[in-house]
Structure formats: C-alpha cells, structure tokens
Amino acid sequence: MIAGAPVISLGAVAIALLVSLEAQRRGIRRAWGRRFFQHPLAWFGIFMVTTFVLLAIAAPWVTRYPPSQPLDIIALQNRPPSLLHPLGTDVYSRDVWSRLIYGSRVSLSVGALAMLLAVTIGALVGAVAGYMRGGIDAVLMRIVDVGLAVPRIYLLLLAVALWEHLPLVLLVLIIGLTGWFGTSRLVRAEVLALREREFVVAARAIGGEPGRIIARHVIPNVLTPIVVSAALGIGNVMLLEAGLSFLGFGVQPPTPSWGNMIADGAAQLATAPWSTLFPGLAIALVVTSLNAVGDALRDALDPRRYRVGDA
Amino acid sequence: MNEPLLSVRDLKTYFVTERGEGIARAVDGVSFDLYPGETLGLVGESGCGKTVTALSLLRLVPEPPGHILAGSVIQYEGRDLLGLTPGELRAVRGAEIAMVFQEPHASLNPVFRIGDQVSEAAIVHQRLSRRAARAKTLEMLELVGIPDPARRIDAYPHQLSGGMLQRVMIAMALICHPKVLIADEPTTALDVTIQAQIVELLERLQAELGMALILITHDLGVVADTVDRVVVMYAGRVVETATTRDLFAHPLHPYTEGLLRSVPRLDDPRRRLAGIRGQVPAATGWPAGCRFHPRCAYTWERCVADEPPLFERREPGTRDAGYARTARCWLLEEPGRRDDRHE
Amino acid sequence: MTTWLVRRFAASLIIIFAVVTLVFFIIHLAPGEPFLPQGESYVDPAVTQHVREEFGLDRPLFVQYVDYLRALAHGDLGESFAERRPVSEILAETIPDTLVLTGTALAIDLLLGLVLGIYQATHARRIRDVLLGYATLFLSSVPTFWLGLLALLVFGEWLHWVPVGGMSDPVVHRSLPWLARFGDDAWHLALPALVLGGVGAAGTARYQRAAMLEVIHQPFIRAARAKGVSEGRLVLVHALRNALLTFITLFGLSLPFLLTGAVLVETVFAWPGMGRLAAEAVFRRDYPVIMAVVIAASVMVVLGSAVTDLLYAAADPRIRVHDA
C-alpha cells in the first residue's frame, strides 16, 4: 500500500483527466456548456479541482507517511525534495507531501462548507427580501449594510479571538456567517427584476402563495448569480482560511492546513523554501482553477444571452 | 442616365458562427446601384441580409466573426471602398456616407450630451472649433425639427423621446452634408404617428440637401410613399428590383407578390390576413435551388433543382426605360407557369 | 441634494451605531478574558479581579456600554489595556503609517489595473490579451501573504534589492538627512506596496476588461464609428467614459482598505499599520483598541459607500441625486 503511493497518485490524476474530458464531452451538448468550454482555462480548472479532490479523498493511499508525525527529528529535518519525500520535509521533520494532501482535506472542506453556508443564507435572504419587498426587505437590507460595514477579515479576527481554541466546525460556521452579505444583494437584484416578469405575475394572479412562488419560480431563475457566487466564493474562503491559519487563528497545529504550513515554513524560508512554497502554490492553483471555472460559468450562464426569448 | 454614385457588385459577407454550426452567408452576392439624389428602398423580412448589406457598405461589420469576401466590390465615386486604408475609410464615414440606425436610444452615448454627439462629426471631419460646431449643430437641430433647440442641445439622450432621438441621429448623420445617407429601419422602433413624421422628415431633408438615400425597411407602406426604386432581398440575395410604381402595380417575383398581398387593406376588411407560408431560413443553411422555393406558390421541379439568375426585363411601357427591371425567378423564362398557382 | 446628504448621514450614523453595539456586546459577552493572551492558562483569580475592577470591567454590562457611548460622543476612544495609553494616540501614530502603504498600494492597484484592463479590452481575444488574462487570473488568486514571503525571499534575501521588513531602518533612520530618509522609506515601502498593489491590480484589470468589453459592443459605439471617429477616440473617450462607472464602484469599495490596511501583508513585512495593530489587539484581547479599529473601519466603509454614490451620480447623467 505504502509503496504504491506514487502509482495511486498518478492514477488519481488519470481519473481526474478522464472525468474532466467526459464532463466536456457531455457539456458541449448544451448551449451553455459549449459557451463554458470555449474558455480554455475552464477545462483546466475542472481538471485541477477534480485532481485535488480525488487526491484529498484518497489521502491514506497516496501518501507514505502520516502527516503530523515527526519522522526523524535530526536526519529528516528540513530536507529538500527527494525520491522518498517528493516535496521535502518541514521544520518538524514531517513529510511535506503528506501534510499537503491531508491539509487539502481541511482547506478544501472548510472552503466548500463555509461557501455553501454563505451562499445558502445569502440566496435565501436575498430572495425573500427581493420578493417580499416593503418592511421585510428594508430590515434585511439594513442587516446586510451592517454586515458589510465591517471588513470581513476584522469580523473573522474578532470572532476567532474570542474563543481560546476554535474548533473546526466553529471556524466553518463563522466564515460562512460572515460571507453571505454580498450574495444576498446580488440575488435580491435578480429577484427584483424577475418579480415583474410575466410568469411570476401570472403565478401571483392565480393566487400562489409567496413561499411556493419563491421556491418554484424565483429561485431556479436566480441560479446564475448563486452558482457564480459559489464558484468564486470557495476560492475567497480558502484564501481567508489560509490567512487566518497563517496568523495562528484558524486551523490549529498539528492539524495541517495549507495556511499554517506556510506559517511553519516561514521562519526557514531562506534555507528551506519548499515547506512554504508548495502549500502556497497549491492554494494558488486551486483558487486559480476555481476562479477560472467561476468566470467561465458567469459568461456561459449570462442571463442576458440566455434569455433569448424576450428580445 | 448619369453615373451611379454607389455601385455594389457581388457583395458577399459571411459570418463564422460561434457554435461551429458552419458559416452564415448573410449577404451572398448582392449587386445594386445608387444614383445621386435618388431614394433607394432596400426591402425584405428580418434575416434576409439587408442590415448586413448596409453595414458592409461602411465596413462596420465586426471582423471576427464576420468578413467581406474578396471579389466583393463597393465603388463610391469610382473608388473601391473595400480597398481603402483605415484612415481613408474614416474620412468617408460620416462625411461622404453616413448612417442612421434602428434603435435611437441605444445608438447614442448615454453619458454625453446630444449636442456634443452631433458636433463630433463636424469637429472630426471639418476641423471646426467647438463654438463653430455648436452653431452648426443648432442649425441642424432646427432643420430636423427639434423644438427649442437651444435648450435641447445640452440634453442627455435619456431625457428625450424616441422620436426626438431619431431626429437627433439624423442631424448627427447629416451635419457634414454627406452624399449618401443610409437609414437602417429608422422607424421600426417608433410609434406609428412618429414613424410618419420621421419619414416625412427624411423626404424633406433629401429635397433640401440633395443627398441620395438608402432606406432599409421591412415595411412596404413606408416604401410606397417615399422611395424611387426598390431592391427586394431574400436569403442574402437580391430577388427583384424595380421602380416603386412598377413594383406595386406589377410585381414579378413571387416573394414580392406575397409581401404585397400580406399588407392588410382598409377597403377590404373581410379578407383573411394572407401571409407567406413557411419561415425565413437560417443563413447557415440556404435551401438548394431557388432559395424561395419552399415557400413559393408556383414552385416546380426546376425551382428545386437550379437557382435562377437575376433576369433583366425591359417591359414596354415601364416608366423609366433607363433601368431594367430584374427578378430572380424562373417564371420570367416560363411565364406560362404563372397560371399554375398552388398554395 | 442637501436632503440626500442629511439622510445619508443619518443612515450612516445608524449603521455605525449598530456596528458599535454589536461589536461591544460580542466582545464582552464572549468567553475569554482580556489581559490573557491566548494560550495563557492560569492566573491568580485575585489578580484578575483586581485588574477587572481597575478597568471597570466588573460593572454591569449596560453601564459599561452607556459609558462607552458617552465617551465616544466626546471623541474619547478609551485607553488601551495593553499599552496603558489613549487609543486615540495609538491610532494617530498608526494611521499615517498605514496610509503610506495602503495609499501607494491603492494607487498602483487602480492605475495599473485601469491601464491593463483597457489594453486587454482593445486587444481582446488576441495573444496579448489571452496571456495577460492568464497572468491576471493567477495573480489575483494567489495568497498575498505567501507572495509577500516569496518576494521577500527573492528580492530581499537573495538579491538584496530591498530590506527584509519594517518600515524604516531601525538603527540609522533618524540620523539621516531628509532626502536619504525618504529614500530609506521608499526602499522599505517598495516591496509590500508592489505586492499589495500588484495583486489588487490583477483583480482590477479583470474587472475593467470586462466592463470595457461590455461597452465596446454597445450600439452607440458602432454609431460613433459610422461617424468616422477614430478607434482610439472610440476607446478612450466613448467607451472608457461608460466603463468608468464600474471603475468608480471599484474605487468606492477600495476606500475602506486605506484605513483598515492589510492584516496579512503587514504581518509578513513587519509594517506598523492598522492591520497589524488589529491582529495584535485581537491577540492580546485589547478591547478598546479592537473597538476603535472596528469603528474606524466601519466609518470608512460607510464613507466609501457615500462617496461612491456621489461620484456615480456625477458620472452618470441618468442618475441624479434626487430628493426623492
């Protein structure tokens, strides 16, 4: 099992390749899929993200060493990349590749979950505010104003500092809770526009109740800003988490996260740059991929082009 | 007959479609002449290529995805417009040949005052000072019938109605006194009463300024009133040309016939609205043979097999013996088939 | 116009008030003690009690709140727990240092981003644009603190082009003539400002490119082209003037950054700015400083928003600041 790690890693990459090629093949059947894949980086983005996700899932099988266990405190401290340690070892004599892969589990899941939370809250609040208008809208948007009034990083610092040791769940929760304000405004704008369109007016005319209308008519059509928000949001959250972990406020050692790996390696940057270089590179690659996918999605799903019907 | 001012021969403008569905042959071999001071109507349903033709004249077609094929000729006063350098082309645009577009609200820059936008062409082409250009602009605004021009000159587009904006556009196009004005569906986006006013305005301006006018429209009513000669387009090609009188009195091409029959008449209220069956085909797939044959009431085997050329016809008693009538239809060779009408 | 200003001012006050209240109660109600940096476990309760009394933290929460508000109304931001001196003093020292960094970074960000975005839009879809697009995509996705570390490594350690951190040379600075002092400052400023500004510019360029492209395809550009206007004028006058509206939004959103600083980059470069101050205050549970920083930040956000709206109304004739 352990000797097979490189092979399994390559296998994961191969599977990611196949998956993204298949996604492209299926995708170009639809108009929006064709527009999506016209962006050369869109395919690359999907491939990269899939690769990282697969590697993260297969962590026990693609790594040879446990991520948080010092291996040989003297001989293996700060070793440069080699055959046994493809990304080298860090200051605590741990295998960097291992920590990178296990760290990706943390960074990716924090990113995905926090984004999911933020986008869900944002979409709901935005949809309700936009559809109901009046008093409810005013109150909700004031809350959004307050939420946007403090820069997110300060809110996060505030939150993480108040607890002695921040459990991961709480970290996800806080990041999510501080990130829905922008999405809610986007969704609200869409909903306001949508509200006056014929099919919604018709649904109201036959006496549909607001909840049903929102769920069945409004939300499917506002999916565009939501989906784009989501894709771009994960990248943002990952950068935030990395920053927080770097400062020592986020994921606590010895649990690896790409952010705190960078912090660990910062002190010996001059002598052993690889322990800082690779986690940062990983973040850059994943966030770039997510941004590329988000951009391509935004162009592909652009409602202005999509709503060909009502010229 | 004097020399044509503008001469188009075998103009072909194709577009590469983004979905890789092939090439859209929007304009597929169009030829016509424009004489000084005349009003030429370019008529056809949407999708027939009339707008692309107009844009091609000034080379305003976006280069990818569109492009004008080699072999197309657009001669203006003896010069080939397609061979001009960008600088030479810019000197023609606005000063010699000007264009008015369909949507007045969208065709004016929302953040600049209308006066400045009208003056711009005069400043660019005639190097007028701002004050001189402004004076000229005031003149033009009055000429096109804008009430209270001294105040309106500083207005922004969103402050004016569609009809007013269209007048502004016309002023903008004519400020350098071009010899040709191309009006692309100038009335389509406007209310009916305003439409009449704009058409009247164009007529009056033509009388006063003497420019040639290419009026592009799908509305035969507009054509009947103002136009000297008509060019009917279908599926990227010219299918009939005639003087207005001859066209309306005695259409040769079945498509023109269909267009005329589909205009509702006040003096015959009980007749069912007639249309032309079928739909305009997509420019990526023109039908084989005669492009109109799937919708034609006279089709026979020859129409499916071969595309007819543009036949010339000098009919006795036509008003202007100087131009020949043309029509792209096999019926001109086999007139007997006209009795064989089948719906 | 005046009505709008008054209403806007009132709304802003309410928002800031809400922020102050929210943050105050969050800080004071959450678990954890001030004076105990994270990690410290045991202090004699008597000592804790004495210190709490000294700082008035044993009084009822609401009383503390009212006192704070009253002091705030007089411009008194309290005294820092950690440094035992007025918070306003600390801020007065820190804000100029922050502005030097953020001002320079923002200038680089906006100017470079604008030019790049326009350049890309005018060469859209060609190789230059595609390559620049990749570069801006990557650069705007990179963690700034990581980039800062690498930049320090390459330009500081290896090449010795710039010093490795701090705002000025701690030893020599004061004794230098002012020109050399300026040079010393600039030398220290270069890298952090470039890193911050560069990453920002990448994002701005992407935004601006999209905005320009949207405008370039509008019918009024084609109509202007039909008048014989040169391509250069079409882009720089007709199109840009419209795309400026997006730019104004960007500018307004970036204004708060001037004061809040960049927490991560300041930490990496040991730059004594508001960002680093905030992080430290949070680490040390220095409540008054935290409150002050948060208030300052929200004031900037609200101000930025108002400035954006004003600029937008000035730039777009379709929107006028009405009393309605």
Globally, the shape of chain A reads: globular
Oligomeric description of these chains: heterotrimer
Helix and strand string of chain A, N-terminal first?
HHHHHHHHHHHHHHH
Sheet-strand content of chain B, in percent, reads 15-25%
Q: Which CATH-level-2 architecture of chain A?
A: Orthogonal Bundle
How far is it from the N-terminal to the C-terminal residue of chain A, by CA? 60 Å
Cα-to-Cα separation, first versus last residue of chain B: 41 Å
What is the CATH C level class of chain A, in words? Mainly Alpha
Segments of chain A where pLDDT lies below 50 for 5+ residues?
A: 305-311
Uncertain stretches of 5 or more adjacent residues of chain B? none
Mean pLDDT of chain A: 83
Q: Greatest chain-chain interface?
A: A-C, 43 and 47 residues
Structural class of chain B: alpha/beta
Write the layout of secondary structure elements.
The complex is a heterotrimer of chains A (311), B (343) and C (324).
Chain A: H1 5-27, H2 31-37, H3 40-57, H4 59-62, H5 96-132, H6 134-149, H7 152-161, H8 168-177, H9 181-195, H10 198-205, H11 210-221, H12 223-247, H13 258-266, H14 274-300, H15 303-306
Chain B: E1 6-16, E2 23-34, E3 39-43, H1 50-57, E4 66-68, E5 73-76, E6 79-80, H2 86-92, E7 97-100, H3 114-126, H4 130-143, H5 149-152, H6 162-174, E8 180-184, H7 192-209, E9 212-217, H8 220-226, E10 229-234, E11 237-243, H9 244-249, H10 254-261, H11 301-305, E12 311-313, E13 325-327
Helix pairs in contact in B: 3-4, 3-6, 4-6, 6-7
Chain C: H1 2-29, H2 45-54, H3 61-73, H4 87-122, H5 127-139, H6 144-158, H7 178-216, H8 219-226, H9 231-260, H10 263-269, H11 274-284, H12 287-315
Helix pairs in contact in C: 1-12, 4-7, 4-9, 5-7, 6-7, 6-10, 7-9, 9-12, 10-11, 11-12
Description:
The complex is a heterotrimer of chains A (311), B (343) and C (324). Chain A has 311 residues and is an all-alpha fold. Chain A has one domain: MetI-like fold (Orthogonal Bundle). Helix content of chain A is 72%, strand content 0%. The N and C termini of chain A lie far apart (60 Å). The C terminus of chain A is likely disordered. Chain B is of the alpha/beta class and 343 residues long. Chain B is 30% helix and 21% strand. An eight-stranded mixed beta sheet of chain B has the order 7-8-9-3-10-11-13-12, sandwiched between helices. By secondary structure, chain C is mainly alpha-helical. Chain C has two domains: 72 residues, no CATH class; 223 residues, MetI-like fold (Orthogonal Bundle), CATH 1.10.3720.10. Chain C has twelve helices and no strands. Chain C starts with a helix and ends in a 9-residue tail after the last helix. Chains in contact: A-B, A-C, B-C. Chains A and C meet through helix 6, helix 7, helix 12, helix 13 and helix 14 of A and helix 1, helix 5, helix 6, helix 9 and helix 10 of C.
